[in-house]
Amino acid sequence: MGKITGFLEFERVEETYEPKEQRKQHFREFIPPLSSEQAKVQGARCMDCGVPFCMNGCPVNNIIPDWNDLVYRQDWKAAIETLHSTNNFPEFTGRICPAPCEEACVLRINEDPVGIKSIEHAIIDKAWEQGWVKPQPAARKSGKKVAVVGSGPGGLACAQQLARAGHEVVVFEKNDRIGGLLRYGIPDFKLEKWQIDRRMEQMAAEGVSFRTGVYVGNQRPGKGVPNWATGTIAPKKLLAEFHAVVLAGGAEQPRDLPIPGRDLDGVHFAMDFLPLQNKRVAGDAGVPDLLATGKHVVIIGGGDTGSDCVGTSNRHGALTITQFELLPMPPDVERNPVWPYWPTRLRTSSSHEEGASRDWSIATKAFIAGEGDAAGKVRALQAVRLAWKDGKMSEIAGSEFTLPADLVLLAMGFVSPVPSVLEAFGVEKDARGNAKASTDGHGCYATSVANVFAAGDMRRGQSLVVWAIREGRQCARAVDEFLMGHSELPR
């Protein structure tokens, strides 16, 4: 794989970032792909390891050693064909996936892993540049109709696979544009939205239809769930018009923080905040004026959503940015001795590098209102430090403190899909509120309701874009088998 001695000769080369003071002035992507020569060198580092654990670490089972070798040999067209054989949207994963494949790389045992994600990024960008990414319409139509509810990566992957199998596919999205959380959630500086539009054009040429602004269900979602639907459609109507329905929405129900002062103006879910900036970048008029400009911003939650709030607040020109995490600060270890478990270590994103104060083992106790003209608006929060022992937390006596806060963003994760959607279909839920469905064997991805399937976050809960693509592809095969009795789609 690659050059026999490449891993001994060459070092890992990271993708370069635009300087932070420059990139904070705009919302464009700031990480260019590797050059052809740089990608070749990284491909050369891929070892003939015998057991490529990277493929197991990758949820879509990308054939990583093969396309590493092809890039080393500069056969880029074969590389994109290999990459597309397992991944419908490598331009998404090559930008926003946390690269579990690199944590599984054998070279990572005692050296820096192969730059798998950066090679993937380079392959797909070159493929688009060279015009190799083309529509793949089905040779024959099946006469079957499938509705896909949700247009995030899971729904889009499922829809594309089903269209290529010859089915008539309609994707329903409650918001005004296709893309799900890729569109309204991921900041443009991590994923510019023309990347989604370009794929939509390909999918439309393959026969996929898109219906935006349509909420599927009987009851609209609550606070913290982006919803710009102008109409609704009842599940009964979908089931009457389509041979199968795939529920592929996101795990959008946010985790709340029910403490004193929660209803004060200025305390918002992260997903009340982030999508508005996506709409501003898209040029929409009349976007609500929820900005971090000139404010003391406190972000509660230390994951990716919290990091995105940091990067967006920096670009708004926040006065200060503080990010709290309930859990202890993880160790900043360089190596991972316990793969296949995701390593527990400190992760610092490009947004953190742009400026933010991070604090761990913090519990927020109350939001404090201002006085006079500021009555009813958050002006500070009260918090306490925590001690952790044997996985249990306790408050440290005397550690209470107060912090200025004009804007508080709750980014503590998502507990489940929107419950009203599953309830409207009558789908049985698992213990965590997700659609209950298996992933293997006969009838996989089928829910308790006839002709209704579920995949991605709707089935597994909050997860990664790469897991959504995997489940969308596998669900498409299950639906194809259900409709036709057999399937030639890859699993």
Number of helices: 18
Give the terminus-to-terminus CA distance. 25 Å
Helix content: 25-40%
Q: In which order are the strands of the major sheet placed?
A: 3-2-1-6-18
Principal-axes geometry comes out as: globular
**Poorly predicted parts:** none
DSSP strand count: 18
Q: Average pLDDT value?
A: 95
* Structural class designation: alpha/beta
Summarize the structure in words.
The chain is of the alpha/beta class and 491 residues long. 32% of the residues lie in helices and 17% in strands. The protein is built from 18 helices and 18 strands. The protein has helices at 6-9, 20-23, 36-44, 53-57, 64-72, 76-84, 90-96, 100-104, 116-130, 153-164, 194-205, 235-241, 270-281, 304-316, 350-353, 419-425, 457-460, 465-484; strands spanning 145-149, 168-173, 208-212, 214-216, 231-233, 244-247, 253-254, 267-269, 296-300, 320-325, 357-360, 362-369, 378-389, 392-395, 401-404, 407-410, 414-416, 452-454. A 5-stranded parallel sheet has the order 3-2-1-6-18, with helices on both faces. The model has no long low-confidence stretch (mean pLDDT 95).
